[in-house]
Each structure stands twice: as C-alpha cells, then as structure tokens.
Amino acid sequence: MTSQGPIPNRAPKQRSRLRSLGGLRARLLFSFVLVAALSALGTGALTFQQARTGVLQQSQDTVVNQFRQSVDAAVLELPSAPGQEELDSLVARLAREHRTQQWNVLATYGDLRAASSGLASVDGLTSELRASVETRPVAVFQRVRTGNHSSLVVGLPVTYSGDGYTVRTLSGLTLYLIVPQKSEQAYVDALVTAVERATLPALGLAALLALLLARGVLRPVRALSKATRRMADGHFDVRLSVEGTDELADLAQAFNDTAAALEESITELRRMEAGARRFAADISHELRTPLAAMTAVTDVLAEETPGLVGDTADAVHLITEETLRLARLVDDLMEISRFDAHAAELNLDDLDLAESLRRTLAIRGWPDDVLTDLPDGIRARVDPRRLDVVVANLVGNALRHGGQPVTLTLRRAPDEPGVLIEVSDHGPGIPESALPHLFERFYKAGPARSRSESSGLGLAITAENVHLHGGHIHAANRPGGGAVFTVELPLRPHGKEEPT
119 to each of 113, 114, 332, how far by Cα in Å? Predict the structure, then answer.
C-alpha cells in the first residue's frame, strides 16, 4: 500500500521558455521572415534583371539604329577616298545633330583620324571591338564601365558596292560612337532603390504576420503545456477548450480524452487503495482485542511450560511464539496505517543522540552484543520514540541476520548540517538483487527469512520514520563483507514543528 495524495511531479517544475515556447516562436518568426526575405529578394532581383535588360536593350537598339541612319545620310556626301577635312566635317556633323544625347564620334580612314569633343585616338576602345569593326561589315557594340559611369560604344564600318556606299564591301572608313548612359543608369539606380524600399516593408509585414500566426499557433500549445504541468502535479480534472476543427483542435480533444481516461483510472486506483488501507486498519484494530486475550493466555501457558513434557510442551511453545509474532504484525500494520493516513506526527525533543542510542541498546539488553562509536555532544531535534524504533529495527536485523561484530556508529554529516547513524555487521551481506527492495513492505531478502519472526514491515516502518524526520536511509554491502545501513538525519527537521 502507498500513501494517498497527489502523484509526485517527476518532471522538472521550471522549463526553459527559450527551449520550449520561446524557441518555437523564434523558429516560426525566423522561418516566416526568411521565406519573405527570399521571396522579396528573388522577386526583386528577377524584376530588376528583366527591367534592366529591357531598358538597356531598348536604349542600345535605339542608339544603334540612329547611328546607322545618321551615318548612312552623312556618308552620301563624302568622296570615295575622304581626306582629313571631310572626316572632321563628318564627325562634327554627327556630334552636332545629336548634341542633346552627348554623342562622341570618332572616324578613321587609313592613317587619318577625326574625333569630336577632343577625342584624338581609339585608345579607349578594346582591340576586339576594333578588330571586329575593321574586318566584318556589321555594326558592333559593347558597354564600357569607367568608375561609376557606363557608356555604350558602337563601331560601324562603312561599306560600298562599286558605284556608291552600301553595306556590303568594306570601304576602309569606320566610325565609332561613344554615348554615356546616364539616363539609363539613373533608371537602373531607381529600380534598385525601389526594390530595396519594397523589400524592407515586406520583411516588416512578414515579421508582423509571423508574430500573429505564431501567437495563434502557440496559444493552444501554451495551454497544453500548462495543462500538462497541472496534470503532472496531480490535478487530473484539467481540460482544454476545443476550438475549430484543425489539427490543434484534434490535439486538444485527444488530450481531454486522455485526461478523462486517466482521471477515471486514478480515481478507481485511489478508491481501491483507500479501501485496502481501511481494510488493513480495520482488521488490525479488530484483531487487537482477541490478540490481547490470546497473549494473556499464552503468558499463563508459558509459565506452565516447565511442567509440561512432549508434544504438549512443543505445542505451548509454538502457540506462544506465533501469538507474539501475530501481535507484532498487528502493531506494525497499525503503524503503517497511520503513515498511509498521514496521521503520523513528530513529537520533537532536543536530545543528546549518543545518550539516546545507548538507552535503546540498554533497554533491549544489547550493550554487550554491539560495538559502539558514539561521541558525546552531538545534539539534534528528533522524535525519541521514532528514533528508538529506527535504531532498534536496524540493530535487531543486524543481530538476527548478520554476523558479529555488529557496530553502531554516530558522526556528523560531512557536507551539510546533519548527523549520520550507521549500523554494520560482518555477515554474508545482502544479495545485490535485494538491495533496491529492502524498504518495501512485506519484502524479505531470502527464503531463509520467510518464516522468521520478522513481519516484513520493520524496514518499511524504519524508512517511513526516517523520511518523516526529513532524512534518508541507504543500504549497501561493506567491501570486506557484511551489510551497512546508513541513516542521515537533519539537526532540525525542516518545516516540522512539535504539535501543541
């Protein structure tokens, strides 16, 4: 049987919010913002690329067509072998006609050079561009970037076919156009600014939506976490409100179903446990009266045993022992019932522990059977009767089941204010498989003890008395053989006051 009350919460009471709800909120927010950022940047980059390509392509086609048309109209007035004066006139005319577009024109014919706006050579043009213009009868163009400025460079060879200028045969006359793309660059910069300005609000909106969605998602999760902690504390009547028909609503409904089934099972277990405790207490109480009479009778019979012989003497001896054993069992059951009903109380007193332990040994006639190491001056606030039960049970077990010598030791706890009481023997020790179960009720370590005078409740009562003081008890085997029981008691039980 176990005590009734809320099931102990074995899960940690405090959970890290960064690891649980806060961590989930951060992940949701990060995911939404990341997706929004990638979407905005991807869309902006694609839009920027398409718009930039369209702007530059349109500008390039317009400039090339205008340049070709202007050259076709101007070269009609040139002789087949133009001189320096004709070249100067040609580039000046072309630059003048397109002054607003800031055309810079360069013409070459053999060793002759003519340029507008002070251009004196083709050094600024790439060798690939010049080679292509001088060898192919097609217009060639490229974009050149200098610092923060870009320009469109167009190379156009002038061709002829016998009786006039055409676009078939190279004439040796080539013209180059350099046009700064300031307006196009300004338009591209405006596109970049527009993308940046659109991205930041998009990210802000994504973060706001993420917070709202995270709040909506985490609200039922937070409620579930809170309900789970309350259930772990023993409140099995907790339920969640079910809203909607989504997966979170299904989770809340599943939690409610589980909680209801668990509450029903726990209620039934507690009812059965309470019934079992009442049964043991009632039986023990009812047995006390007839046992008192039987004990009185066996005492009378025990006095007559020396005058009896044979089977009669054996029978009287057996009934006397079994009656005493049954009386001890009933007393132990009554004591266990008090612990189960939380009716056990401490009657605290300030004691010299060494003197109290010596008194326990003397009352039971054990001073000559037990070696002691009990330094004086160690005082603690304990219940004298319950301390006597603890020490008597441990020393009695060592004398019955262990080997001599049995030692009782008292010393201060090394780490915290408290005392250690150790009972050790030099017997065969305790089987390793039995160590975890020694303080369970009605547990006996081996078949040899199944018919001993022990009720199987002594160590369980010992442990309950130690725990009632706020202490701990531990059993182990000594390296050299034998068992050792260690009781750790605080100098003053925490939260325990002597009843008035």
Answer: 10, 8, 118
